[in-house]
Design brief:
The chain is mainly β and 299 residues long. It has one domain: 6 Propeller (Neuraminidase), CATH 2.120.10.30. The protein is built from two helices and 24 strands. The strands form six sheets. Strands 2, 3, 4, 5 and 6 form a five-stranded antiparallel β-sheet that branches. Strands 7, 8, 9, 10 and 11 form a five-stranded antiparallel β-sheet that branches.
């Protein structure tokens, strides 16, 4: 077994003690920002022709980029970091010869990296259903993986995690699926209060249906959610939809994000950068980005 949960020590230490500010031209790996038409993100560096990438997230200050890669049928989590005035080459931070690690997402304070894995609780034995896990930053890299616990995870699959600025968690699960409808994933929120977390709450029928809803991204102010859904009116194998929260706390009927975003393939894994400028997502095994003004157009 080749589990590697630790960031290389030299790179991590240089990040801690010799980090230089990122200039405007160095942001987003130095890529030219997209307009209203989606383009591949960092082709030849991140988005490779012979590789399946998905599930991406930038840190709040833009100096780290995490994403998942499917390698020989197993998924692993990679990272690039801005260190000593330049971006590193992609390196692996979560991998295993048996189990998968993907759907990375940072906590609001950036000190935890959440992900999903089919590893058993003891990391020995056969693979299990997908649970939500996390690793914590340490002075030497990352901690060993910690299971997010029974309040979040069920005996079925949990996928993709995102957070509001206050710490409420959104994720998807097929915990209510039946033997006849095993692909019935729904989106849940887990509100956080001063006294600790409540129980997960299924989002209403304006968002969840008897079909597939997963890969949810929630805005930091909880004003909208973007998610992947499989519906009859869709363009392909899975489309991105958006729903906005109204002043009374209810949600608008989810709207397909249209042919600018969705194709005859599969669109999934949405993420909006902390500055609100760019929407990242996966399309046909590559990571794309587009100006986030499309969100306001759909509002």
């Amino acid at each position: 077994m080749t589990f590697t949960p630790v960031l290389p020590l030299l790179l991590f230490c240089s990040y801690l003690f010799a980090q230089s500010p990122i200039t405007q031209s160095q942001k987003y790996l130095g890529e030219n920002p997209p307009g209203s038409k989606p383009v591949k993100f960092a082709p030849g560096i991140i988005s490779l022709d012979n590789q399946h990438e998905f599930g991406s997230v930038f840190s709040n200050n833009g100096d780290e980029f995490f994403y998942a890669v499917d390698k020989d049928g197993k998924t692993q989590t990679k990272c690039v970091k801005f260190v000593n005035g330049k971006w590193s080459e992609p390196f692996t931070i979560l991998s295993d010869a048996v189990f998968s690690y993907n759907d990375p997402m940072l906590s609001p304070d950036g000190n935890r990296l959440y992900f999903i894995s089919n590893r058993p609780l003891t990391n020995t034995g056969k693979e299990k259903d997908y649970d939500i896990w996390y690793v914590e930053r340490t002075r030497s890299g990352w901690s060993l993986p910690v299971n997010a616990g029974a309040k979040v995870n069920s005996v079925k699959h949990e996928y993709y995690i995102s957070f509001t600025k206050k710490g409420s968690m959104y994720f998807s699960s097929n915990r209510m699926a039946t033997k006849e409808r095993t692909n019935n994933f729904d989106i849940y929120s887990l509100p956080v209060t001063g006294k600790g977390s409540k129980q997960p709450v299924s989002l209403p029928g304006m968002i969840n249906t008897e079909e597939y809803e997963a890969d949810v991204y929630v805005a930091g102010d909880e004003s909208y959610v973007i998610f992947c859904a499989v519906r009859a009116e869709g363009y392909g194998a899975g489309d991105l939809y958006i729903s906005f929260k109204k002043k009374d706390g209810t949600w608008t009927k989810a709207k397909n994000m249209g042919s600018v975003i969705n194709t005859s393939g599969h669109e999934l894994c949405p993420f909006v950068t902390a500055d609100g400028k760019y929407l990242f997502y996966t399309s046909n095994k590559d990571i794309y980005w587009v100006n986030a003004s499309i969100i306001d157009i759909l509002r």
